[in-house]
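Schema walk-through. Below, the input block comes first and the output block second. Nothing else is stored per chain. Lengths vary across the set, and this one has 108 residues.
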Amino acid sequence: MTVEQKKRVEDIVNEKIAAKLPMNNVVMPRAEAEKTGARHFFGEKYGEQISIYFIGNDLASAYSKEFCGGPHIKNTSELAGPEGKWKFKIAKEEAVSAGVRRIKAVLN
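--- output ---
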């Protein structure tokens, strides 16, 4: 990633934190869950009932959604820390495989 691309990712994440978006959950049959476009990994084993966690007010317009066992926050604003001053910052970026990048980030 270029310096500009990293900065843009940081800006997007920090905008979503500042937007104070709610974290929500719906449970539905696997076939229906796959149709939502929620991100999931095909190598993972999922049961017939799927929990989809999403950031936003509803599943259709969610900013982010994925098959998941559960979130660690109830609202993106929690990521800003107890005083509301933490910022998302990319600490490291690397190649995982052809065309796939991994970032490691911190909140401070």
